[in-house]
Amino acid sequence: MAGNSFGQAFRITTAGESHGPGNVVIIDGVPAGLPLTVEDLRVDLERRRPGQSKIVTQRKEADEPEILSGVFEGRTTGTSLAILIRNTDQRSRDYSDIKDLYRPGHADYSFDAKYGFRDYRGGGRSSARETSVRVAAGVVAKKLIEQEFGGRVVAYVCQVGDVKANVESPQAVTLEQVEKRPDGEPNIVRCPDLEAADRMIELIDECRKAGDSIGGAAEIVATGIPAGLGEPVFDKIKADLAKALFSLPAVLGVEYGIGFGCVRMRGSEHNDVFTADAEQGEIRTETNRHGGMLGGITTGMPIVLRAAVKPTSSLPQEQKTVRQSGEEATIRTKGRHDPCVLPRFVPMAEAMVAIVLADHWLRWRGQCGTLTAARSNEAAGQ
Amino acid sequence: MAGNSFGQAFRITTAGESHGPGNVVIIDGVPAGLPLTVEDLRVDLERRRPGQSKIVTQRKEADEPEILSGVFEGRTTGTSLAILIRNTDQRSRDYSDIKDLYRPGHADYSFDAKYGFRDYRGGGRSSARETSVRVAAGVVAKKLIEQEFGGRVVAYVCQVGDVKANVESPQAVTLEQVEKRPDGEPNIVRCPDLEAADRMIELIDECRKAGDSIGGAAEIVATGIPAGLGEPVFDKIKADLAKALFSLPAVLGVEYGIGFGCVRMRGSEHNDVFTADAEQGEIRTETNRHGGMLGGITTGMPIVLRAAVKPTSSLPQEQKTVRQSGEEATIRTKGRHDPCVLPRFVPMAEAMVAIVLADHWLRWRGQCGTLTAARSNEAAGQ
Amino acid sequence: MAGNSFGQAFRITTAGESHGPGNVVIIDGVPAGLPLTVEDLRVDLERRRPGQSKIVTQRKEADEPEILSGVFEGRTTGTSLAILIRNTDQRSRDYSDIKDLYRPGHADYSFDAKYGFRDYRGGGRSSARETSVRVAAGVVAKKLIEQEFGGRVVAYVCQVGDVKANVESPQAVTLEQVEKRPDGEPNIVRCPDLEAADRMIELIDECRKAGDSIGGAAEIVATGIPAGLGEPVFDKIKADLAKALFSLPAVLGVEYGIGFGCVRMRGSEHNDVFTADAEQGEIRTETNRHGGMLGGITTGMPIVLRAAVKPTSSLPQEQKTVRQSGEEATIRTKGRHDPCVLPRFVPMAEAMVAIVLADHWLRWRGQCGTLTAARSNEAAGQ
Amino acid sequence: MAGNSFGQAFRITTAGESHGPGNVVIIDGVPAGLPLTVEDLRVDLERRRPGQSKIVTQRKEADEPEILSGVFEGRTTGTSLAILIRNTDQRSRDYSDIKDLYRPGHADYSFDAKYGFRDYRGGGRSSARETSVRVAAGVVAKKLIEQEFGGRVVAYVCQVGDVKANVESPQAVTLEQVEKRPDGEPNIVRCPDLEAADRMIELIDECRKAGDSIGGAAEIVATGIPAGLGEPVFDKIKADLAKALFSLPAVLGVEYGIGFGCVRMRGSEHNDVFTADAEQGEIRTETNRHGGMLGGITTGMPIVLRAAVKPTSSLPQEQKTVRQSGEEATIRTKGRHDPCVLPRFVPMAEAMVAIVLADHWLRWRGQCGTLTAARSNEAAGQ
User: Fold this and answer.
1) Which amino acids does the record list as binding FMN (chains A, B, C, D) (predicted)?
2) Do C368 and A9 touch (CB under 8 A)?
3) How much is the pLDDT for B186?
4) What CATH code would you report for D5-257+292-381?
């Protein structure tokens, strides 16, 4: 009810604030027998953590995960899996000057309106710090879908300000391309179009120097997903994926397939034509304007989503605002904020999409994995 | 788990197919004492029903609701409220020709992949027919939020194909403007910019004549919403609203506030400035690029959302496709489909948004309505 | 939140009152392909309905079910299944005399305290009438567990007042024994010990003539249940079964296996000894004091539960009470009430137990049906 | 779905095993502003912990709680509250001898059947160790109901073996009586009838010396509970309380009010008569055979429940069993187990009952706290 859980069959519940002891996630529903180590968790946490490159916030947080339960001898036990990431870089200082100031674009005012009081030392529960344990849970989800059916989720930055990446085949983009340049150097902006990547970095750097920030968009692609995942009415997989992405901080828009482009299209140019693979007899579509989902259920085609992410609200330049009392004031955020959220948004978005896919896979197993024999027999008997 | 429920405190569960006996919704969580009649339900059902104007499908469905429970002497009793809408216009005919054909853009193939067999007489559970009972539930939600805090939800068509409406102040649009033209004639396309409305009608009509369909977008605005609704992490109200809209058929994108426009903006131009109303001491923002929600929690400013709706997939012109066996085939949908979904999408979108607001209001009451006295006392004591 | 749903993977949601148009259940999560007809539903509804014998209430209710959705060509489609049972025997009369009277042992006062007003024409939502649709849902659950793994649920009356049945082997009792006597006559009290059954009938009849009612107990036995159903902590299957039975009207106590008898036992005499079936290598216990569940998870042994059911609160004799105003009054319930609830409780208890088993089976399929191959391979590799 | 969460509006999710790093609970739904310190948590944890007296297990576990989130400046913030209790007494040793042995009365076999493998170093997730964090969550629930409406929950041991306590007025028993004898010495068996307490201690000690264990029962009483909590159908408060108690290890039976005693009663002697308090106009019942709940909703009378708890399954004497392979074997549990669970069961039972009451209170606030003004006005207008 208070919204700290997500998913049904693969269900995560989180707790933690930016300036408290740490963040914790309990993952309920992980099947027994999945290999899992702390090292696995570190890979994506490293991609999300502050201080990883010059274009992200320079806060130093180790983000070292501890598995508290649910793993025995390197494999999941089927019981609830808890992961703790302690906070280590909360600089102790005097917060009395910002205690009652409402930072523009932040949840300070909303929180006060809702709860009557709040942890004013930072974003508290609304800080993006809580996404660290989402990313950890996402690693478990990614391992599950890969082991179960070879599913993969890869995200990348497709736009920053006016700089758009040119990505011809979203489903062909690899994690390696997103993370590394051909010369082995890190792809710090996580855009597979390297020419655009360079311009994005330049733009982000320019904003940083100007004491400003910049928005952008990410594309998330899931491949190897079997047809049949998702539910026909409210839990359409497009609806759950949208909720997952909108639950991330700073997301103002989500679309899939042709997305908002459909507004100007006619049905005859929009519909994807079904075809049958001559050799395998497998049914697919010639084009993928439907982004891998029809009627809210996967078709077996790649799932392609895009999310719009607003520019960071915390700015080192002076902004006008008010205090809790209504008194006018100005605020200038002291350093160490991301001039552009997108590079660190990529692993968060991957995590949430993987969690939805793991959840719907387990749901499918429960409901649709049954009576299969009966159905096959009946089909054979006809 | 199978996704036929939506909401937590105000929770709807639905059942029904296009060619079965009817559709039913159970609404769980309606507080006792809310006035409700069948006549109330009819108002929005009339706005959703087929055959209401020349630019929508010409199927004739009465959509007559029956309240099966939860209302006594004209008021809700606090127990579960069930509403039944029987199907009346399923023409009995021979379906053997389309039994194994996969209609492009429809869920036929997805359903077969998921369930192994399906009701081939129409969309079955994937038909938009199921939205009739959502609209009925939406009426209850609208009444609840209006009675509780004067909340209102109004939607309208803001784009069809290339025709964009010019709506200066979304929060000023009234239901009356959406439904009626100044001359008393019905505003059949439900666009408050009458000049644009005329061009939209023309465009839809042109598509209809060409045996084609056209996409569009709707804007949904909620006003009178108190600050503090929504949960900080997964059940951000933006996330639940997005899920609600994406759960409607044909929605390919959702955004709020400045939406995808944020991608090109800098933080300094994007942030809305907080101000305090001098007289009432109330805190608000000067602009509303944040669309009424910060940190996933309402700010008291109008909530503004937009949804992209794809062109109807059923077309009276011939389309290429395959049969279940993989064999190539063509399909031509026989008449009576909407050339543009948008005019009938408006009440559906309003219903889903109202349901989310009613749900979060009751959740707020449960969690945040408590300890208020304690908080006030404490505040007073400081 | 308002408690009109039960179960997770096999989830029922109900609505309806005693004096409204009817009762409806939506079952969400039924796998596709299960054969189901209205005739199937009638079997257990007939066992629950009023007027079936001289020892139950003489109200005449047809309890005719209508399947509104979720079944096509005689099989479930995998989408939500709705069943409607209309009320037919609400005699229209003047209720003004009982409008504000609190019937002893009933929920009239509780409802007023909770909701502020209530449907005073009968029990409203608290009437046992709502169990009709639970019984219908139970039929679907019974069919599912029988088809999936040969599971069966049989209940019977094991005590009425001081008359205790002597049932040596609960798991050997058949539905036929519960329903019919060897001479083909109906076993109207549903007790398989026929000698005790005769004395129960006599006792019930004596109470009926005295304008009184009598309590009793039922035993519910599930056989053919695979080991491994149930969850380790909160959703122990014993906990879900207890909730299911306690959710039925008039149940004041539930126990399983040796139950309250354990209070006086020592560990050395209580523990059931594990053995291995020499031929099949299957592990079982020599005795079944654990009632088929250890650690909240099934062991493969028969599940044996008992429920205590209070005497009917409505009595044709005069009882003291108060009005809503606090004014003293007397009440005498006019006719047609069950002198003993137990014979009609049997199908209700079976239904609820079957629903829990179906639910946990589908949950098991989702969580534990995965990675099995991986586990087997690993086991083989060792 | 995997059952590691309990409650809806006040919802706890737990993780942890007996031999892992620790146990953690996330409590979701705690209203903001509730005073809470680690010291508060210690009180009940001390009552639950091993080694507290000579009649419980002599394991030494500190059970030191750490609040990871959700509390700021000594008060809850309204966001999710996480509490971690690390394990400290897992003696490292060789488990190879018991790795594949099925301990009688334990969940070893059930777990293997369910998950395919298990943490064999102890009970793992089925160990009563997980109840430590339930007790911590119970403290939060107790504080909430006390602050909100003066509600209190007190439990005590009412029977051990054949020794029954004589407690005339359950609602008059105080926490002080349960914890301390008049001479200030601890009441180590937690039975308020001191004469019975002495005999219980004697019996438990006798069992301990004989290498055996003994069963018993506890009574749980909640006072100060407002009328109107609980839902009419599936979430009857009796059903949720029963589930809560049955979810605790070793509980084989639960009853409330007159409980199984109702089986032999007639309606005329069973029904409690309603009366109105002359001075306050408040409605109550003369007797409390209904245990404070009618129609599954509280009546304002004290809630009285009883739970039957089986004798500890782990015994220092030799017991027959089998290995995973089916091979026969014997097992003798090495020391440090409770000869009787009851004294430590008391705080666990209190915690679970308090959690259900806190949950239903918040649910009531959400659903029934609304429209109150409307109802009052309407009532006034009549």
Assistant:
1) 125-127, 295, 310-314, 336
2) no
3) 96
4) 3.60.150.10
